[in-house]
Specification:
Layout: E1 3-8, H1 19-32, E2 39-44, H2 46-54, E3 64-66, H3 75-89, E4 92-97, H4 105-112, E5 121-126, H5 131-136, H6 143-155, E6 161-164, H7 167-175, E7 186-189, E8 208-212, H8 221-234, E9 243-247
Parallel strand pairs: 1-2, 1-4, 2-3, 4-5, 5-6, 6-7, 8-9
């Protein structure tokens, strides 16, 4: 049995947001209740657990491993020591980072330098669908921020795989020189998203199209409205007997 760990730290207040954080917390809880091939752990700091608890997540979970963050000059070494203790004690062979940010780079670098018998495989979850477009276009509003976040991931560390929420990231890696072909990590774009079927299940089919998300600029609710308007102007007959719902 190969032991696997999710690893996340610094989860902030989640009211009205935190899709990836909630997603992996739900997945972790359901996985614990299932008869599975692997043992799954969650390496997570106390503050992140508290914020997930506030939205009803991870309240009754087992296999949580408390990650201690530091803010002194020995920060990276002390945090690595904490991770290595988990790797050895729990025989962890793979670490999956559900919500990547550049703050993980120092630890990934140190994990890369572990001897082979200790070094776990590293998989990064890519959530941001803007990454390929922003990196290719220097005039993109997010170009500078995304370049600063993702270039260190491509250039400064080695990872074994990417678990992508969008096919466009896979296409980007496959069609650019981000990685030499012989060093390219495994790439997998999900075909569907996990959901807790006790809460969500197919309803009676209706002629309804629903936008369900936070009503802020990051989620672009205006695109939903504009798309309906364009379709209505081009072919209003298609919209007959259809209802559109904008919720957030």
């Amino acid at each position: 049995m190969a032991n696997v760990a999710l690893f996340i730290f610094g989860v902030g207040e989640l009211t009205g947001g935190g899709g990836a954080e909630r997603f992996f917390a739900d997945f972790f809880e359901v996985y614990q209740r299932s008869k599975t091939k692997h043992r799954l752990y969650y390496i997570i700091d106390k503050g992140s657990v508290e914020n997930l608890n506030k939205v009803g997540k991870l309240k009754e979970s087992k296999n949580l491993l408390n990650f201690n963050g530091f803010s002194n000059r020995f920060k990276d070494t002390l945090e690595l020591f904490g991770l290595v203790k988990f790797i050895i004690a729990k025989r962890i062979k793979l670490i999956h980072i559900p919500l990547y940010s550049v703050s993980y780079i120092p630890l990934i670098k140190k994990l890369n330098n572990l001897p082979s018998f200790l070094k776990p495989k590293i998989v990064i979850n890519i959530v941001n669908c803007y990454v390929p477009f922003a990196l290719k276009d220097e005039n993109h509003v997010s170009h500078k921020g995304i370049k600063g976040t993702y270039e260190p991931l491509f250039k400064d560390v080695s990872v074994n795989g990417y678990f992508c929420w969008n096919q466009n990231f896979v296409d980007y890696v496959n069609t650019t020189s981000v990685y030499p072909l012989e060093k390219q990590p495994l790439l997998y774009a999900i075909k569907s998203r996990f959901s807790d079927t006790k809460k969500f299940f197919p309803a009676e089919k209706k002629n309804e199209i629903v936008f369900a998300s936070r009503l802020d600029s990051q989620k672009h609710p205006q695109w939903f409205v504009e798309a309906i308007d364009i379709l209505n102007k081009q072919n209003p007959e298609l919209l007959k007997n259809w209802k559109f719902v904008l919720s957030g």
